[in-house]
């Protein structure tokens, strides 16, 4: 409908052969089916390896008659020593190896429906004290983490909006807390009158500090200065934190379970995936899409260890 937008966040689980019956080759068709069913205008995926991204795009566009494109880069950097070894191994096969953080490692890509959405500008930064250094890590993070973001335009209404996607560390509470402050400070540099959506796997429950950082309206803007300096963005005199809202909390209609992470064996029940918006959107519906079989056994194959989450939004 006019003035409305469907946003999705979906951790699809990286292709790990040790997942056995839940490795990518066995469950990818379930993922494609879920995405096709949800008919999102824009999606933030987490844990995607490059071949998974290619699989998703090719299958949705060719087999489901969709029209998705994506933005994003791999989060890792291959050192020169490793590169030399890899090149020697691959030389006979004439395989090109990318070592600039373009295709290496996990992505947090943003897929958008090109029939409805136009990309205006995009970029990324690493969740670290050196945000533009490929593969950089800080704050005791176990893994390299990245934020992918873009400025988009809805074709039907000509309305612009920002969309940010991330996946924060699973081990370091400090890295998650500092990461959300880095993201919150980056958002403070954007125009507050432009609608904004932030999605991702934050590896935090909604009562923990990383989420409190994002939704708090009482943090002094002076705390943003050091993060904005890390991001190398000029500081405006009128800069202020934007108020962000958890769509699960404010949506008029909520459907599905509370938990978003279950594990492949459904042994977990945690809420760690979120869709946040600024005050330029209204959240109409929030859905945790429970697509697991009614009875999960050790031999079951399920789409992912996370449920996709969906927010139907209205431009204000």
Structure description:
This is Endonuclease/exonuclease/phosphatase domain-containing protein. GO terms for molecular function: 3'-5'-RNA exonuclease activity. InterPro entries: CCR4/nocturin_mRNA_transcr, Endo/exonu/phosph_ase_sf, Endo/exonuclease/phosphatase. It comes from Dictyostelium discoideum. Residues 8-306 form the Endonuclease/exonuclease/phosphatase domain. The protein is an alpha+beta fold and 316 residues long. The model is unreliable at 81-86 and 91-99 (pLDDT under 50). The protein has one domain (9-296): Deoxyribonuclease I, Chain A (4-Layer Sandwich). The protein contains 7 helices and 13 strands. The chain is globular. Helix 4 (173-188) packs parallel to helix 5. A 7-stranded mixed beta sheet has the order 3-4-2-1-13-12-10. It has a 6-stranded mixed beta sheet with strand order 5-6-7-8-11-9.
């Amino acid at each position: 409908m006019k003035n409305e937008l469907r946003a999705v966040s979906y951790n699809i689980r990286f292709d790990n052969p040790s997942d056995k019956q839940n490795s990518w080759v066995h469950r990818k068709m379930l993922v494609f089916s879920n995405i096709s069913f949800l008919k999102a205008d824009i999606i933030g995926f987490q844990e995607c390896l490059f071949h998974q991204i290619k699989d998703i795009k090719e299958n949705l566009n060719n087999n489901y008659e969709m029209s998705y494109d994506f933005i994003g880069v791999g989060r890792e950097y291959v050192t020169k020593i490793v590169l030399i070894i890899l090149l020697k191994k691959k030389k006979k096969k004439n395989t090109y190896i990318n070592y600039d953080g373009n295709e290496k490692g996990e992505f947090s890509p943003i897929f958008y429906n090109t029939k409805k959405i136009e990309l205006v500008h995009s970029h990324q930064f690493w969740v670290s004290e050196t945000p533009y250094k490929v593969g950089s890590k800080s704050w005791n993070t176990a893994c390299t983490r990245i934020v992918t973001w873009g400025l988009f335009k809805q074709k039907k209404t000509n309305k612009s909006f920002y969309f940010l996607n991330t996946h924060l560390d699973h081990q370091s509470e400090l890295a998650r807390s500092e990461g959300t402050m880095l993201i919150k400070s980056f958002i403070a540099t954007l125009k507050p009158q432009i609608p904004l959506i932030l999605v991702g796997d934050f590896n935090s429950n909604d009562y923990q500090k990383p989420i409190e950082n994002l939704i708090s309206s009482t943090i002094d803007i002076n705390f943003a200065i050091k993060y904005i300096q890390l991001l190398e963005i000029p500081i405006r005199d009128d800069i202020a934190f934007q108020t962000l809202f958890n769509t699960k909390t404010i949506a008029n209609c909520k459907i599905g379970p509370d938990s978003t992470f279950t594990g492949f064996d459904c042994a977990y029940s945690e809420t760690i995936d979120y869709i946040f918006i600024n005050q330029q959107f209204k959240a109409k519906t929030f859905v945790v899409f429970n697509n697991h079989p009614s009875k999960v056994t050790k031999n079951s194959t399920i789409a992912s260890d996370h449920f996709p989450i969906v927010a139907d939004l209205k431009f204000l």
